[in-house]
Amino acid sequence: MTKRSICPQKDGVAASEHRVYQKDPLPEPGEIKHFEDRKVGLGKKVTLLRGISIIIGTIIGAGIFISPKGILKHSGSIGMSLVVWIACGLLSLFGALSYAELGTCIKKSGGHYTYILEAFGPQMAFIRLWADLIAIRPAAMAVISLAFGQYILEPLFMPCDIPPMAVKLATAIGITSVMYLNSMSVTWTARIQIILTFSKLLAISIIIVPGMYQLFKGETRNFENAFELSNMKLSGMPLAFYSGMYAYAGWFYLNFVTEEVDNPERTMPLAICISMAIVTSCYVLTNVAYYTVMTAEELLASEAVAVTFAEKMMGNFSIAVPFFVALSCYGSMNGGLFALSRMFFVASREGQLPEVLSMIHVRRHTPLAAVLILYPMTILQVFVGDIYSLLNFMSFLRWLFIGVVVLGLIYLRYTKPDLPRPFKVPLFIPVVFCLTCFFMVFLSLYSDPVNTGIGFAISLTGIPAYYIFIYFNHRPKWLQRALDSFNRTLQIILVVVPAE
């Protein structure tokens, strides 16, 4: 978005910090490697375990603990709801495998943005980036953060209601701590993500194990007539699948950090397959566990399904459930921010965002500005924004652009047949998934045309923004000077240098 004219070595602060770092013969592995020619770049420290923790930790949020009832409500029976959970896991695996092919043949970080850029050019990629930056990502981060604020305070206020301002303050503290962690260390961000992922798997196992015990004891009365079709409506099945696909969303986050993945040709497909198998198994078995002690009617009536389950099975231990839910939300916040910051990093490197966003802190070795860009917008939405309306506007755009990405995979098969593809999926996998995505876009248009239309209009504002900020090179001198001054000032304040 600005001319690449900043020279960090001429700046006193940056040059000084840079020289201090050069004296250190053993930089911490996995973050920044300084070579003799003084080039700087992000290191490859996302191992298989860390890759799995990013995917699982981001997919599993609060939904499975609190409100896994959208599928049951629209499918009409316990048996069909379990079939939908399994089918959505399989369809999500198809999407994840398609992304694994893209990640191994286009070895750049950035996820959706990078693949749209490679397949369909900079204008389409910028529209996706614009929608992410001004609406989708701040709103999504604010929603999961508010869930964290709500459940971290719930044990302290039981049985009273939590004051809304207390929730917002706890949310702000949570967001600030996640931003701080991602700003300070790539390695510690990944380590914390592994711990948080194991904690949410522990929480799920605390539900699954007693549920399976009840099942093996013969508590199967809720599964009798599991496929009773009297309440099932064909018109509800697409909405059940929509709810299911939303629950699995997050399998694409490893593709946002491709350049930091160690041996991506092997690690990415393995991490994706293992993660999707674990998540699908957890989702299905957790729902089976719920049904061993709750009827379909009780599950639909519960405001927090995991708490109701724990009260029936574990008595006072149920007070710990909100704490585990809060940890699960925190893991989604941490993994999401870690991945998304790399998208802004790559977009800046491509010249579609201010240059300072593609710079790295000289001591902490993190893309500091790219991490912090979401902070003010997210905090603003937590305190003053109408987040849920915004998510209604933008939810269909997620599936539209994911469908466009997978369509890009099919397109690249024909336009660039010689592109190296270390991992290649059968063509029917991206075709089936692409059709699924566009079906969900059509469903959004059919079921909620007003909000969907507003969201589409918001995204189209990216077209004039592209021509104003990117396409036309001859900007007024005063605007160019202002942008250069902005980059230089932030570079000095944040103590960052360009990555090469």
Q: Which helices and strands appear, and what pairs or packs with what?
A:
Elements: H1 12-22, H2 48-59, H3 63-66, H4 70-75, H5 78-105, H6 112-120, H7 122-157, H8 164-184, H9 186-216, H10 237-248, H11 264-293, H12 296-301, H13 305-314, H14 321-349, E1 359-361, H15 368-372, H16 374-384, H17 387-415, H18 428-447, H19 449-460, H20 462-471, H21 477-494, E2 496-498
Antiparallel strand pairs: 1-2
Keywords:
500 residues; mainly alpha; two-stranded antiparallel ribbon; 21 helices; 2 strands
Oligomer: single chain
Count of individual helical segments? 21
Unreliable runs = 2-38
N to C succession of SSEs: HHHHHHHHHHHHHHEHHHHHHHE
- Structural class, from helix and strand content? mainly alpha
The overall strand count is 2
Coarse morphology: globular
How much of the residues is beta strand, in percent?
under 5%
What does this structure look like?
There is one protein chain. With 500 residues, the protein is mostly helical. The chain is 70% helix and 1% strand. The protein has helices spanning 12-22, 48-59, 63-66, 70-75, 78-105, 112-120, 122-157, 164-184, 186-216, 237-248, 264-293, 296-301, 305-314, 321-349, 368-372, 374-384, 387-415, 428-447, 449-460, 462-471, 477-494, and strands at 359-361, 496-498. It has a two-stranded antiparallel sheet with strand order 1-2. The two termini are 18 Å apart. The relative contact order is 0.20.
Task: Describe the structure concisely.
The protein is an all-alpha fold and 500 residues long. The protein contains 21 helices and 2 strands.
